[in-house]
Specification:
78 residues; mainly alpha
Amino acid sequence: MVDATPLIFPQLGPLYQALFPWAEAVLRAVVGLTLVPHGLRSAFGMFPSTGAQSHNLTEFANELDRGGYHPGEFWARN
């Protein structure tokens, strides 16, 4: 039987098999931890000098236009 997904580093096969049951949980934890600063800024106002500095949809659309996302109004509403 041919393996459907060949390993990039076949020597690490046993390690891949050992970590397989934990892979999804680790991925979820890493992604969740990367979103913590965003949540802190949104919910508690921490890190005030980061992120978009717009207070309404029009300002956000203009900021997107300046950033190269044309048309900014379309992207701001989506």
